Amino acid sequence: MKYFSLFFACALCASCSLNLHPEDENVLTTKFNSTWNVHEGVERNLNGVITYNALPWGGLVADVKDRNMPVDWTNYESITFEFAEPTQVPTQIMVSDKLKTMGKAGISSLTCYFDGQDLKSVNEVALQASDTSVLKVKNVFLTPGRSVWESSPIWQGDCALGNWENGFVVKPEQFTSATEGDKLEFIIKTDVSDPERGYWLMKTVYNKTEDTLEGNDNELNQWGCAMMGQAATSYRILLTANDVKKLREKGLFVNGYYTNVSQVNLLRREVAPAQ
């Protein structure tokens, strides 16, 4: 009987271990096991769901280094968090402080696209909440991509947005060739002249309206702004059919908070052949 109990216990442990680690190299869920704020809490249920008791701008963190060295995510196009329950507060994905994506409250998933960023040296990823909340994460995964985007400039200049002081218009005729699924790419540089400044924003609306574009709706905060990463060099928006229609009619107006914009490109996707 003693040997049977020992066998059963070992089999149960092995079974649990298999159930908790069904992942391939693209799935990162089990790596999220620590927090930036010592007063936060993280627990993992037997079904793998992570319960994260978040404090404002703390962080549920994954160390993604391989053999203690940063990893190269050049061949991936995004990271996605899937939630077991809709989020209660705005949340943010941060990738090694190079890239940030904000998601509004009430969403069931949030994707951070790597468009235009140098992600050859990634050491950690964090999920942050804007306020005290309980976030339940059921899956975190990377999406490989071989997409190549053909770029056409539709606006060029040197607009320092400052503290909402400046902005610019991209005229409707620049969107004549745009179609659903294309992307707008903003070539940017954040203004880091003030070391106390901790965030950078950009807002994109149909010109002469208060309506923000639909394509990045999940990334916008309560004021309709997208947050730029401190070291970001570009930001992209996937255009919906309604975005294309409105942009052809009205054009685009851009302003924001201490983000400098030098160029706007219209991108069309071409799938690169498999190697």
How would you sum up this structure in a few lines?
By secondary structure, the chain is mainly beta.
Structure description:
The chain is mainly beta. It has 2 helices and 18 strands. The strands form 4 sheets. It has a 5-stranded antiparallel β-sheet with strand order 1-4-9-6-7, with no helix packed on it. It has a 5-stranded antiparallel β-sheet with strand order 2-3-10-5-8, with no helix packed on it. A hairpin with a 5-residue loop joins β2 and β3 (50-54). It is globular.
Topology:
Elements: H1 2-20, E1 32-35, E2 41-44, E3 50-54, E4 60-63, E5 76-83, E6 91-95, E7 99-103, E8 109-113, E9 124-129, E10 133-144, E11 147-160, E12 163-170, E13 183-190, E14 200-206, E15 226-228, E16 234-238, H2 241-250, E17 252-257, E18 259-271
Antiparallel strand pairs: 1-4, 2-3, 3-10, 4-9, 5-8, 5-10, 6-7, 6-9, 11-18, 12-17, 13-16, 13-18, 14-15, 14-17
Largest beta-sheet details: 5 strands, antiparallel
**Radius of gyration from the alpha-carbon trace, in angstroms:** 21 Å
Run of helices and strands: HEEEEEEEEEEEEEEEEHEE
User: How much β-strand is present in the residues?
Assistant: 35-45%
**Spatial ordering of strands, largest sheet:** 1-4-9-6-7
Report the helical percentage.
10-25%
Oligomer: single chain
For the structure shown, list the relevant keywords.
5-stranded antiparallel beta sheet, 2 helices, mainly beta, disordered N terminus, 275 residues
